[in-house]
Design a protein that fits this description.
77% of the residues lie in helices and 0% in strands. By secondary structure, the protein is mainly alpha-helical. The chain is elongated. The relative contact order is 0.12.
């Protein structure tokens, strides 16, 4: 018998044989992570919106060489993309926070909101990635002036890692909410 089996579960917290955590703890953990991720996503999209409005080529020149600062300002997407992209990102982040708060309150609506967020986030990552790759593809020859040979492989690896990180939480939520013991738990929650 293992040490974990010797410890009785907390009173009032039924433990499913396949679960590592008491039945009532996961909504708090997942909800807290969701709120944290949502706030970070919101701040990131707000920064994406504000940066092109307040940072000029001269500002970038204080950090980088004048030639690189020029490339950075040229490679910034047009505001006709930045504004809707940022607003959509902030709305998605708000949906995740709202769903996560509902999870903390053990509401089935939180499950639905988080599932909607997950599917929409996956779709939005595909759209944003496609637009970014097409947009930045125009600047690859100029980027090569500043990068060492072989930078393309490193950049591709960076993009793959970034996509894995960005998609990890929505995929996790979809898988987690589809588990039979989890579905049985939230089925009893109020709407």
């Amino acid at each position: 018998m293992s040490h974990a089996q010797d410890i009785p579960p907390e009173v009032g917290s039924p433990v499913h044989p396949n679960d590592r955590y008491p039945a009532e703890r996961w909504p708090t953990v997942v909800g807290t992570i969701g709120i944290t991720v949502g706030v970070i996503l919101f701040i990131d999209k707000l920064e994406d919106l504000i940066t092109p409005l307040v940072w000029s080529e001269e500002d970038w020149s204080r950090i980088f060489s004048p030639r690189l600062a020029e490339l950075i300002t040229e490679a910034m997407p047009p505001m006709s993309w930045v504004i809707p992209s940022s607003v959509i990102g902030m709305l998605l982040a708000t949906l995740l926070v709202a769903g996560s708060i509902s999870l903390l309150r053990r509401r089935r609506s939180g499950i639905r909101m988080c599932q909607w967020w997950s599917w929409l986030a996956i779709l939005w990552v595909a759209v944003e990635s496609t637009v970014a790759i097409r947009w930045l593809g125009r600047f690859f020859p100029r980027i090569s002036e500043f990068a060492q040979s072989g930078w393309e492989g490193l950049a591709a690896m960076g993009v793959i890692v970034a996509l894995i990180v960005v998609l990890a939480f929505p995929v996790f939520l979809l898988l987690w909410f589809s588990r039979p013991p989890v579905r049985a738990q939230y089925a009893a929650w109020s709407a």
